[in-house]
Prior knowledge:
elongated
Amino acid sequence: RFENFHDNKNNIIEVTAELNNIGNAYEYLGDYDSAIEYYEKSLELTEELGHLNNSFIVINNLINVKNINCY
């Protein structure tokens, strides 16, 4: 059954959202490197799926955390 999980596009979309949420949690905790890591994983999957709206959300999060990390 687990093998079928990754074959289902809706499940992959959920995984991208969860990766983004984990990135949000790390950002909130101040662990910006981990936040960036999870945002980048989420972005990679959203781009593979062609979900531009989700990609824009993740890109926005990446920009925000990278701006915070610069200060």
